[in-house]
Structure formats: C-alpha cells, structure tokens
Amino acid sequence: MLDTKGKIIRAKIKLGKEQPFFAMLLSYLTIREAKNGELPFPTMGVSDKGLMIYAPEFVESLNEEELKGVLLHETMHLALSHLLRVCERSREVWNIAGDIIINNMLINEKFQLPKDGIIPTNNQGKLEPYNLTIKDINKKNADVIYDEIYSKIPKMKIRMVGMGQANGKGEGVPSWDSHIYTEKGDKQKDGETEANEKEWNKRLVEAGTYARMRGQLPKGMEEMIGD
User: How far apart are CA 211 and CA 178, in angstroms?
Assistant: First the structure.
C-alpha cells in the first residue's frame, strides 16, 4: 500500500502520460510534507517560490482523480502568476478570484476536484455565504473577477476558511489551499518578482509547445496561450 508521498508520485506519473501540458508545469514545483504551523488549514498550499506543501491527512482523504486536480490547482496559481501579481490587493479576495478561474479551467478540462471549495458549473461559480454568482468565468481573468467581487459586495469583509468550516452564514468561502507569500513584491513589484513572473510565462509557453507537439494541448490552454 502506497504512503502519502507515493500517492503523490503516482499521480504525477499518471499526469505525465495523460496531460503533458499540466504535468510539465507541475514538474517545476518542489513538493514536501508541511511542517508544524506552515499551513493555516490542514490541506495543501503553494508559495511564490514554487514550493508545494501538504498535510498528509488531506492527501489521504482524496481519491486519485481529486489528488490530480488539487496538484494542478496549486500549480496553475504559479503558472498564471497569481502569487506574484497580488500587489496592493486584498490577499484573501485575490485568492478567491484565482481559485474561481483555476477551478473553472480544470472542471472544463474534465478534472475532478474535492467537493468543498468554489466548484463552478457551466462557467458559473457561486460564493454561497455572500449570495454572489460569478458568470462567464471562461471569458474573464482573476483581475476582472477580483474587481467584480468588490463591486458587488464592497463593504463586506470576505475571508477564506478551511474545508468543512464554512456554515453558509457569511462566515467564509471554503477552500482547500493556502497561498504563501514570500516575495518582496507582494506589496509592490520589484525586479525579482518581475523576473519570476517572466520565468513562469516562459514555462507556460514551453509546456504548451511540448503538449502541442504531442497533440495533447487542451483546447482551453490553446486559447489561453495563443500562438
């Protein structure tokens, strides 16, 4: 029987065979078990330095398809430079906007995700505690959705909570991941932040080229990357 680390390795190997685009991006991350106090929720998290950390009990709670989805969810936050572009925004609202974009992308590519969290359907996602529905997600990016959330509920304090902790009474948007900011550019972009963003843009294009050569670039990614 595989241990937690073995399950993650097996999921990565299967992704390499099935989804070369996503698997190549995932290969740039360092993955390890979280140490005490590193994660605000006992789930999974990613840093702007490319470190993915996980709580073993969370990984064990997922089936293999859900594990693939969560690994790619974390990866796409880096591939889309979400952790490098927060700047002066509210981190929690920015995280929610990024989650909406990525989960919608993965659902459209037929990946499975854990039931807790913002799981869009037909390119619509609902923030249950705030009775707000984000429509046409496939036509937007995190910046647009961030502004939309604030324009609809500008005076309400929005926060994220761990899986199973939201009760539908305005006490938070459930999520299974945490974002760990270490860049100097988390408040204002500096040279290092811009260099890291360019590096991830390069990796995104390289992964697209590799998958296209194998005839396995997902349609949604083809539209995002373009030529």
Answer: 28
